[in-house]
Write a structure and sequence with these properties.
Helix content of chain B: over 70%
Number of strands of chain B: 4
Structural class of chain B: alpha+beta
Order of helices and strands of chain B: HHEHEHHEHEHHHHH
Number of helices of chain A: 7
Radius of gyration of chain B: 32 Å
Largest interface: A-B, 26 and 27 residues
Helix content of chain A: 25-40%
Number of strands of chain A: 10
Oligomer: heterodimer
Strand order of the largest sheet of chain A: 6-7-8-3-9-10
Shape of chain B: elongated
Distance between the termini of chain A: 28 Å
Strand content of chain B: 5-15%
Largest sheet of chain B: 4 strands, antiparallel
Number of helices of chain B: 11
Strand content of chain A: 25-35%
Structural class of chain A: alpha/beta
Amino acid sequence: MIYFDHVSKVYSPTSVALEGVNLTIEPKEFVSIVGQSGAGKTTLIKLLLGEDRPTAGKVFFESINVHDLSAKELPAFRRRVGAVFQDFRLLPTKTAFENISFAMESAGMSEEEIEADVTQVLDLVGLVGKAWHFPHELSGGEKQRVAIARAIVMRPDVIIADEPTGNLDPMNTFEIIKLLEKINELGSTVILTTHNKDVINGLNRRVITLEGGRVVRDDKNGRYVL
Amino acid sequence: MEHSHNHTPTMLRRMTKNGVVAFWRNGWVTLATVLIMVLTLFMVGSLLFSNVLLTSALTHLEGKVDVSVYLKTEADDGEISNLVKSVSELPEVKGVEYVSRDEALEQFKAKHQDNSLITRSLDELGDNPLGATLNIKAKDLSKYEAISRFLEAGVFSSVIDRVNYHQNQLVIDRLSAMLQASRRGGLGISLVLAFIAALVAFNTIRLAIYTNREEISIMRLVGAKNSYIQGPYIVEGILHGMLAAVIAMMVFYPLTLWLGPKTEAFFGGPNLFDYYTSNFFQMFGILLVVGVALGATSSWIAIKRYLKV
């Protein structure tokens, strides 16, 4: 469902982030992308979200060329792709509930739908009791769970998690990865980037290894090899 | 794939609600922005007040200027009434006051009643030495020249002794020039000050939105439409303007109460406090419109740059 077709991203002649990347990600896959800092993981994610444009090549989401989307079409596309980041990226002046409901509100869904769906995902991430807390009143693990709830509430086809456990302790890391696996079981494709060896080895799923902007390994039941 | 049912009223209500909530939660930023807006609106209000004072001072001064025509003592009543009629009919003339010989004498006596030398001299004279006078007021200062030229043209030389315009000409011209300059200068300064104040308010709002740029990018990332992101900020800007207008009006209450009597004595104009109370809604309306327009457009312009793809 996701295709990278000879994608390159060159910031400057001395700074090449991606070089001729070819990738296919199937529906319902759980794919981990590993690589050292600067290997191109974040650039790959940014291109997929339409946050940045490739220098060469095409990124397809089903039959949609992501970078052919107009400014008007982009919001609807982004609601099909849920994103989770290392730094959580919650709206600081909105409560957990409001952070999650924001995208639904902006999509014009009814109050009943919003109330029902947000409560459901809060339950899934185990934060029903903290719905009316602001981000600064939540721990790192709780913030990341709000972010995951926000990412899945629109029932996207794909969840992109860019180093979601980078700021978390081992206990919370374990919880977050379990949550992502559960979301995957419920039918969403999950793309995870991480540095964490234990996470990769524990998952025992497909692993794509990036090095210097190129795909150097792509293993079906991969382990962390760098 | 698209779940959206776009009910405009629902979206407007949500954007308004989000704007109101953000206005409340932003606390210190809201306070700072509103205070700067109060300053701007205070400036606008002060300009309105000073314009009222200046205008009334000018009309007050203009009202003091007239041209006096001293008539010959031997002029007969028919000729005089002919003159009064002709002058009254001039389009430049606002009013003519006729002071007869007897009235002139009465006024003269009243004015000098404490001066025994003068009263005694008058008694000794027996006859009335004073001529009748015409006090002519023009519609505005620039018309006195034309009126005096008409009077001195010679048609009425048999009745008119002298016209005091030329004695007063310098004063009248200078006053006229001063009034025009202060009007024009006042307008110029007002516009410059209002512009600077608006610029400061605009920059304050821009800075507030700049601190929100991260949040704006998050909203875009989770798939919110630009219009939906923009709406609450514009609502917030409108609220800033409204609250600032209310506070500015509140500040003017004690200020005009205190300044009213002072300015009334100094300018001879209306009491500012009376003006404030009798024009309260009109003034509030002006400040409200200026504040809301400034707040909304500032927000709109400031946020636009963060919504580009």
